[in-house]
Amino acid sequence: MSVRGAYHDDVGAIGDVIVVGAGVIGCAIAHELASRGVAVRLFDTRSIGGGATQASAGVLAPLVEVHEQGALLDMARRSLALYDGFVERVQRDSGLDIEFRRCGTLEVAADDARAAELRARAAAAEPRSVEWCSQEQVAVLEPLLSATSRGGLLVRNHGYVVPSALTEALAWAAMRHGAQVETHRTIARIVPEAEAVRAIAEDGATWSAGAVVLATGSWTDRLAIGRTPQAHVHPIRGQLLRLAWHGPRPQHIVWGERCYVVPWLDGTVLVGATMEDVGFDERTTAAGVRDLLEAVCELLPQAWTATFLQARVGLRPATPDGLPILGSTPAAPGVIYATGHFRNGILLAPLTALLIADLVTRSTADPVLEALSPSRFAS
Q1: What is the pLDDT of residue 378?
Q2: Of 270, 238, 276, 274, nearest in space to 254 by CA
Q3: Cα separation, 258 vs 6, whole angstroms
Q4: What is the pLDDT of residues 91-104, one digit of tens each?
């Protein structure tokens, strides 16, 4: 998806906001800003959602992904609560359908120690949506599971969204509100100035705006940003498999100790995901595919009959403390970070878009941004 021509002058007129990065975070921010009447220009080196987003399973499961209390869990819960209205609005604004289901997650215990851990988490959670299920109950909920399971933790309000459909719809919704979108254009340098911020492409083309939002994921530290310190974002490779399932499929998102399985309505299932610290290596590997196939067949033996369709890979943007980087820093006026979401970019997209849009349009900072500021890495 690309809109060209309007902003190809060597120096563009000062606009409102430039968003760099058209993954789910960048597209969600562009849509939210454009819907508030902000003039938005969205750039990406690749196609829409062509980075880490395309290798996500779209799982919306804060009580599985984030176990510890703290800012990240609070954000994840807040963002999940926004999701129904978020999807409804994006579908309305874009005119596109988005597959989104709250089918629940079932986190399976493979041994007694894991069962004890999950029972303790169930006891500490809000009882209306979280339930410990015995071995017999799990067998009824998911008959395809291995008979060796020792029970599981059922979270009924968890679910998934199809990332490609969501991101495409967000981009179209943003454009319907007037956003300019240009793909296959690499922004290489950001220069904060007295009255504006300049975004300079690899080919020298330059655009100016009142603010620049960096939704650049794992590539944030590769972007030259004035004289500011690095954001300390580093890539973690995640490989994901897509299988065509034969026969009855799992009814929930099933979470084992070595993989998770997401059943889509088209009859396929996604199996994810590896976590590999290998730098900017975006290859799918035989080892990654083998490990995921072994893990899913151990969890759901019927997977041996599935048809292998595809392996995907993405680089998840990780930070030293595990928290996203959201907000601005005095070292780079007009530059706003929206990166470092690691495995939770899809889940945190609705809340991130609201937080950043409020910061831009109302100059109001949600209290959670204090813990997420890029300034925390300044030393």
Answers
A1: 73
A2: 270
A3: 48
A4: 999 999 999 999 99
Residue given tokens 């989104």 in the structure block: 100
Give SS3 for 356.
helix
Give, rounded to a whole angstrom, the gap between the first and last alpha carbons of the chain: 40
pLDDT digits (tens, 9 = 90+) for 121-133: 888 887 678 999 9
The pTM assigned to this predicted structure is 0.94
3-state class of 368 per DSSP? coil
Q: Where are the beta strands (DSSP E) in the chain?
A: 15-20, 40-43, 59-60, 100-101, 105-108, 130-133, 152-155, 159-161, 180-182, 187-192, 197-201, 206-214, 224-225, 234-244, 253-255, 260-263, 268-272, 307-318, 325-328, 335-339
Handedness of CA 102, 153, 251, 59 (dihedral sign): positive
Closest CA to 51 of 175, 167, 199: 167
Report helix, strand or coil for 373: coil
CA distance 294 to 297: 5
Residue type, 168: E
Are residues 325 and 371 in contact, defined by beta-carbon separation less than 8 angstroms? no
**What angle do the packed helices 345-361 and 71-94 form, to 10 degrees?**
80
Q: What is the pLDDT of residues 232-285, one digit of tens each?
A: 899 999 999 999 999 999 999 999 999 999 999 999 999 999 999 999 999 999
Q: Which residues contact 177 (CB under 8 A, 6 or more apart)?
A: 31, 34, 35, 93
β-strand 105-108 against 253-255: which pairing, if any?
A: parallel
Q: How many angstroms separate the CA atoms of 82 and 349, rounded?
A: 10
Provide the strand spans (E) within 44-179.
59-60, 100-101, 105-108, 130-133, 152-155, 159-161
User: What's the token pair of residue 332?
Assistant: 């780079």
Tokens representing 225? 């940003």
Q: Say how far residue 33 (Cα) sits from the centre of its chain.
A: 19
Distance, in Å, from the CA atom of 138 to the CA atom of 134, rounded to the nearest integer, reads 6
- The string of pLDDT tens digits covering residues 144-185 is 998 888 999 999 999 999 999 999 999 999 999 999 999 999
Do residues 293 and 241 lie in contact, with contact meaning Cβ atoms separated by under 8 Å? yes
